[in-house]
Amino acid sequence: AQSVSQHNHHVILSEAASLELGCNYSYGGTVNLFWYVQYPGQHLQLLLKYFSGDPLVKGIKGFEAEFIKSKFSFNLRKPSVQWSDTAEYFCAVNGDNTDKLIFGTGTRLQVFP
Amino acid sequence: DVKVTQSSRYLVKRTGEKVFLECVQDMDHENMFWYRQDPGLGLRLIYFSYDVKMKEKGDIPEGYSVSREKKERFSLILESASTNQTSMYLCASSSPGYEQFFGPGTRLTVL
After folding, report:
1. d(CA A27, CA A93)
2. Contact A105 B100 (CB under 8 A)
């Protein structure tokens, strides 16, 4: 069965620090990969996605993620975080020609001014 | 802009009650999904539907059922609510092969 691991459960950073959130998945076939973000009190929204092509994907608000097939990873990065990036971040994957998503357990990011 | 709406933001019910959670999307999406979100567990798929009157069990369907009589509407039913069904319930929709769009969620408390 597919699974998604997010090893960082809670990350605390100061503004302007660099961010990298880990995401690993277990599935050997073709996958689509997503990062979703949930700001406090708001609904889940798409940050970025990878379907095919360039493994370095750029998303909204300066976020990017790199798909490394050999490592089954899709880590999320941002060079300089802001207080407004405080949120919960979820990695998700689908494969097997299905639209069902498997989500990781999420990473709570707190950014202090 | 894609819009997914859920009938209630907050709901309080008693053990044994029948509970209906409604979800409506306005983008003519074929797929609709129901998840529950619990701290430390992420989102877990309860049921999804890929067409009207079609449904498929997700990872945690026990204690739940669904109904999709119209393309834009997907209902989650708790036949007899229990305290362990206290959770945040999220609805989503998508076109096949594309990303999912989420509603604001319904926080259900079962007393």
Report:
1. 9
2. no
